[in-house]
Design a protein that fits this description.
13 strands, three-stranded antiparallel beta sheet, Outer Surface Protein A, domain 3, alpha+beta, four-stranded antiparallel beta sheet
Amino acid sequence: MSRIGRLPVGIPSGVTVSVAGNEVTVKGPKGELKRLFRPEVLVKVDGGKAVVEPEGQTKLHRELHGLSRALLANMVDGVTKGFEKGLEITGVGYRVQKSGEDIAMQLGFSHPVTFSPPKGITLAVEGTNRIKVQGIDKELVGEIAARIRALRLRDKYKGKGIRYAGERVHLKAGKAGKAAVKK
């Protein structure tokens, strides 16, 4: 039995979890999330706790047990607290500004790059070089942050580009060491 899967998911006050077959709906103060779980796991709601149980003992059942419990816990956390991911833009002339719901970024291209968030995601701009991706769906927040980061991946030699907040960048030495030896 999965160590993560056997832990019950606490349901705080103000949050309702309803199960209809394999579809689980979680409603809370920040919104509503729905997810269709695999038929290999069973979700039960007992009072103030939700429990995920596997339907069998095969390797697939054990794998889906912990995964399903983690997904359910993320849904409950999302509708109560929400999730956010921070991005930093580094480089001379690289900047971001908010225009309505969209953001417009100068990333060293000949034109500004605009990005419009999907429904359920809000983009906040702090200063000229920080972006916060916020929402209630953890998967969607991470995916949108990765899409924005992929618009201009960090350079290996100068470190310019978009990175996650707090991400360490290891810079390469370049050709300077090679040229000095060659004399």
